[in-house]
Design brief:
alpha/beta; Molybdenum Cofactor Biosythetic Enzyme, Chain A; Molybdopterin biosynthesis moea protein, domain 2; Molybdopterin biosynthesis moeA protein, domain 3; 4 domains; six-stranded mixed sheet; elongated; binds adenosine monophosphate; binds magnesium ion
């Protein structure tokens, strides 16, 4: 049985390089991974600008009266020279300014003496000039490769006209759900049946990843039906095939044998993790297939531990890093011969941020899944010390 660390290393070897990137319109790029560093094409800001609404005057202008001599509207070029001493130009936030010999005074610090004259209540200053290049110089890195584009970074790209960024192509995933006991969530189960929730789980997890659910299908446990559905899954244009259920060694567990029959190399069929032990990792010509245990909590854990890691690597993102954390003193944890990945939340205790394990019955327990913020790593047998590792899930 492989340890989680061993399986991580194996998966990293299997996905040595990300998928080729593509250029897309900025408008569609939210959530994509930037696959190029973005450099400032020119100084930021590109010209000296006013940070305030007020008046532009000569750098040596003292407090007192000045004659109004016109307006510099935002969007129009800067005056070529400083206003002569004793005169003032009306300026607005963003107005372009001459690069030398000027000062500003905020509107609030002035009073109109009459229609043509202004009283400066104190001497002007250069404090409110946003200097060219003060935020970044031409050629500076504005965004490194490998970040996910969010509202803020998209705005930065728009501001420099980078309207076709090079980003990851979404990883495409097929999800085959097996189980004769399963009915769709909109059906009422008869006795012995249960609703399929892994379809919903995977759909939602992939949206966050980011990855695309290209195909999803539910079949009963018969070998023939599973074999046919697996063929259909393999016929899709996808990089990853997920099979829900059937990853163990029972009479209805066909995943490993069917993947092998399709020419896949099975790298792992059990991992020393609780939950998540019957986990299959297989590959064929660069395509990856995973058999995940059917219990939704096991599905959740295996997805976060292994599938998400592979999706991140294929997308050009670093895998989610484990966070070191301090266990809340009142935490109760059961150690196990297998390493446990325990659903947990963050708890603020005084000034300290600690991690609190959620009450968890077994891997069929879904009541805590909605509040799970991370998976707390409980080492095998020894039990946790005060310092633990957490794999963040949100
Ligand atoms: P399996 O991995 O197929 O042996 O399933 C383990 C447990 O998870 C069984 O109790 C199944 O009924 C349950 N299970 C399997 N698939 C799903 C699913 N898609 N949604 C909810 N529960 C499931
Ligand atoms: Mg099953």
């Amino acid at each position: 049985m492989m340890t989680v660390n061993e399986l991580w290393n194996q998966l990293d070897r299997l996905v040595a390089t990300p998928l080729p990137p593509e250029r897309i319109a900025l408008f569609h790029a939210q959530g994509r991974v930037l696959r190029e560093a973005i450099l400032a094409p020119e100084d930021q800001p590109a010209f000296d600008r006013s940070a305030v609404d007020g008046y532009l005057v000569h750098a040596d202008q003292p407090a007192g009266l000045a004659t109004l001599d016109g307006t510099v509207h935002p969007g129009s070029p800067a005056p070529t020279t400083a206003p002569p001493l004793g005169t003032a130009l009306r300026i607005f936030t963003g107005s372009a300014l001459p690069s030398e010999g000027v000062a500003l005074i905020m509107k609030e610090d002035t009073k109109l003496a009459d229609d043509h004259r202004l009283h400066l209540l104190h001497p002007p200053s250069t404090r409110h000039i946003r200097r060219r290049g003060s935020q970044a110089k031409a050629g500076d890195t504005l965004l490194p490769e490998g970040v996910r584009l969010n509202a803020g970074s998209l705005t930065l790209l728009a501001s420099i006209g980078a309207i076709h960024p090079l980003v990851n192509r979404p990883v495409r995933v097929a999800h085959l759900v097996t189980g004769g006991e399963l009915v769709p969530p909109d059906h009422t189960p008869t006795e012995g049946q249960i609703r399929d929730c892994n379809s919903t789980l995977i759909d939602a997890l992939l949206r966050d990843c980011p990855a695309e659910l290209a195909w999803q299908h539910r079949v009963d446990d018969s070998r023939a039906a599973t074999a046919k559905a697996l063929e259909d899954a393999l016929a899709t244009e996808t990089e990853i095939i997920l099979v829900s259920g059937g990853s163990s060694v029972g009479d209805y567990d066909h995943t490993s044998a069917l993947l092998a029959a399709q020419g896949f190399t099975i790298h792992c069929d059990k991992v020393a993790s609780r939950p998540g032990k019957p986990f299959i990792a297989a590959s064929r010509d660069g395509r990856l297939a995973f058999g995940l245990p059917g219990n939704p909590l096991s599905h959740f854990v295996c997805f976060h531990l292994f599938v998400k890691r592979v999706i991140h690597r294929l997308s050009g993102l670093e895998p989610v890093a484990l966070v070191r954390a301090t266990l809340a003193p009142r935490a109760e944890l059961r150690a196990d011969p297998r390493e446990t990945w325990w659903p947990c939340v963050w708890a603020d205790e005084g000034a300290q941020r600690r991690v609190l394990p959620l009450p968890w019955m077994d891997s069929s327990d879904l009541t805590i899944l909605g509040s799970t913020a991370g998976l707390l790593r409980v080492p095998a047998t020894a039990g946790p010390g005060a310092e633990v590792e957490v794999l963040p899930c949100v």
